[in-house]
TrEMBL record:
Provenance organism: human gut metagenome
Pfam families in alphabetical order: Peptidase_C69 (PF03577)
Gene Ontology biological-process entries: proteolysis
Signal peptide, first to last residue: none
InterPro entries from the UniProt entry: Peptidase_C69
Name the UniProt record assigns to this protein: LPXTG-motif cell wall anchor protein
Gene Ontology terms for molecular function: cysteine-type exopeptidase activity; dipeptidase activity
Length: 87
């Protein structure tokens, strides 16, 4: 979970029935085969339906690790970790 500041919430507030941490795996995992597809599906849902809360999500598979931050109703950032980096 993550918490956004008040300024971004004024501009792009969370959506009551948007994607929540409690249902993320149920909504995403049955429909993807790779970490990249998982991040892409989460991004699509956040853009179209919104996020119910802030989240920091890490999705990994044998080809790499994807890191995503969702800190407003419809905006996110996602990166693929370089193969030689970790945190």
């Amino acid at each position: 979970s993550a918490k956004a500041n008040k300024d971004i919430q004024k501009v792009d507030p969370y959506v009551e029935k948007g994607l929540a941490e409690s249902i993320m795996t149920t909504v995403v995992l049955p429909h993807v085969k790779t970490a990249r597809e998982g991040g892409g599906l989460i991004a699509e849902i956040v853009k179209k339906q919104g996020a119910a809360e802030g989240n920091i999500v890490t999705i990994a598979d044998k080809t790499g690790v994807w890191y995503m931050e969702i800190l407003s109703g419809h905006q996110y950032v996602a990166i693929k970790y370089p193969d030689d980096k970790y945190s």
